[in-house]
Amino acid sequence: MNDTLRYVLAGALIFLIIILQPVYLEWLGYDTNPPSIENKEIVESDNNWAVPEKRSKPSFEPKLNKLPANAHGKESLITIVTPIYTATLTNRSGGSFVNYFLTGENSDKLKYLGGYDDGGFFQPDIPVSLIINSEEDCMPCLADYDDSGDRYNFLNQPFTLLNFTNQRDTIYLDDGSLELKYALHDPDGRTIINKKVSFSADKYINEHFYEINYDILEASNNLELLWYGGLRPTEEKEDEDVTYGSGIISQAGEIEDLQTTDPDEILNREVYKGQTDWVAIRTKYFMAAIIAESAGKYASLSGHNAEFGQRKHTPLYHASIGYPLDISLISSSIYLGPLDVDFLSQTDASLDASMNWGFAPIRPISKGVLWVLKFMHNKLSLNYGLVLLLFAFLVRLITGPLTKKSYESSQNMQKIQPEIKKVQAKYKGDPQRLNKETMALYKKHKVNPLGGCLPIMLQMPLLWALFMVFRTTIEFRGAPFMLWISDLSKPDVVFTLPFSIPIYGDGVAILPLVMGATLMLTMRMSSATMDKSQKPVMYFMNGFFILLFNTFPSGLNLYYTTYNMLSFFQQRSIKNKLANK
Length: 581
Fold this sequence. Notes:
The chain is α+β, with helices and mostly antiparallel strands. It is built from twelve helices and 24 strands. The chain folds into two domains: 3-27 and 367-580, no CATH class; 63-355, Distorted Sandwich (Beta-galactosidase, Chain A, domain 5).
């Protein structure tokens, strides 16, 4: 094959790689379109229902037709202020969240900054708010589903607050716990539902306990503990919350989820039969989860798009746990906070399974990587940028012997290339003899043709785990490093172009360019003895990586840039030692 044909073939292959980029990203689990609901296996409830293909929003109504309103029904609000969050509840539904701000402090600033105000505009300097305005007041609430009308009937009337009635509407909880007691009465004064809501000063967990009087309450369907209205988006780039957001259920350790990336798509209610441990709604970095003390008999998920500010797509997911109609006690926990494994572990539920740790063999490595990063940050009191630099040195020490073995094997292979070409020319008409003589040549020079590949393959699980952790870990959200790198969870863009380049995007980031330079130096050293016809392919691939990594988080690019620089110096040292032998 002549050089011209090789160049044409190389260009075609690179073009094919660019075209297949979405498939490549989906394989890695990065920025990919979630699966369509049409491809999911639907598990139906006991009663089938007819569902329309599209509608502007799922219908609902308060359960006033079956349940009289509270005789003293008047909406009131109460705010709980703790060191880590500020929650405002309405007495409707017996304590439904109407506001929830994360105010946990980290040194001299709020730990979780940047979010959307009530007008739907992103503000970089306000605390993260997780509750989006909702007229249903069902975060959470009890409800039953009307199959014939294809809608929920919400038990969202105003309850009576039985304690703290003579105090101000703001309660400061600096430590310990707090309990609110609500009751729903009929016009005759009989108690229909008693509810207790308890809060902790140092946990994102609140307890919701219901006592239900079914001598008075008549329902025509199963009762559900429901979170209706999703979560408020938190990321400035619209596609980040859309891509990573979903409704999730856990049944017997198995996870199912529901997602949409189409703003015109309505995710009609799906029912999943089975003992349900918890249901959750997540965005990229935050979660609302209902955890059942006693497993429910089924779970349901649904969703629709909401109008919110200037955003084209704000998916709101709804999740519930279903119970038998004759149940009289429902005990549950609500986790409302960050996707931080330290806080998730306090729930004693498997909520961390909602995080994408990679394939099963990769998950332990991913969790180990995150543990090491958090350990270095907390115990050594280091900026996360410095943690990544130190971690790159640590990984370089671990993988250094493998890299050395790979590079030495590659150099030895290059040295015997002239002899291999002579053998190929001599026995080109006899494949069996060619193979025999080639293997004899490898044995003579003690060269393993796979010696350059195997060490790299052994590193792949670690590299994959690093990618999975760096792209979504909340520890990097809002974490600055130095100079222009102000947020390790976002690209380190220094200026924005007036147009967008495919794959590259519209922002110019510095770290991908520096990383590309380190790759170029390493490639030039590695290709010194390489066939000239192969060099253009390597340079094309280097350019492709610069394009691809431009939209990756700066924390990931900082790590890879440091790692590549260390690789360059190691390979140069090995090359000099081999040259002196």
